[in-house]
Write a structure and sequence with these properties.
single chain, mainly alpha, Arc Repressor Mutant, subunit A, 70% helix
């Protein structure tokens, strides 16, 4: 049996299984078929199949590499935009009156929740989350230890999560902080 017959035989017997393998590795339905065909083309280009001990394992390796290459290309390659297809009229999606009202109410609740925090806890939280200050900088300027900075941040996050849960019961606050330190709810 020559190399072309061997490859043809492999394709007829295993193409469906290799397509399923490609899909399991992340290729879409149409892309999986393309990848399998490309794998067989590469196998054919490789030349002497006598050097290959396990044809299926070799094909699987080629398929995995092809899928990785495609993912890499998608991640790096710029998105192609055909400017002829883009209309000159761009429509902005401005939120409707209901959505604007919800946003205002959410902002008012968030500001109210922040104001309800003890002053030092609020200061530590705002400096860390909004200003981006480091634990060390906050500790030095507020006269605290790093452990106390962490405790104030933990307390702020727990209080804000709890108040958010109170306003929106479908959002469950994380028990991570309370459980970590042995506190009961």
């Amino acid at each position: 049996m020559d190399a072309n017959d061997r490859i043809d035989h492999l394709y007829r017997d295993h193409a469906r299984m290799l397509t399923a393998f490609a899909r399991a590795k992340g290729a879409g339905p149409d892309e999986a078929e393309e990848v399998v065909q490309d794998a067989f083309v590469r196998l054919n280009r490789y030349g002497s199949t006598e050097k290959i001990e396990n044809d299926l394992a070799f094909l699987r390796t080629i398929i995995v590499n092809l899928i990785r290459d495609r993912f890499r290309r998608r991640k790096i390659a710029p998105v192609f935009v055909d400017y002829d297809d883009v209309g000159t009229e761009l429509t902005g999606e401005e939120p409707g009156p209901d959505r604007r009202m919800e946003a205002r109410q959410a902002l008012a609740r968030a500001l109210s929740d922040l104001d309800a925090l003890p002053e030092l806890t609020k200061t530590v939280f705002l400096r860390y989350r909004l200003k981006g200050d480091t634990y060390q900088k906050i500790a030095d300027e507020c006269g605290l230890t790093i452990a106390l900075v962490r405790r104030h941040l933990r307390d702020a996050l727990a209080a804000l999560a709890e108040s958010r849960h109170r306003d929106r019961p479908e959002i469950r606050p994380s028990n991570k902080f309370n459980n970590k330190f042995g506190r009961e709810k």
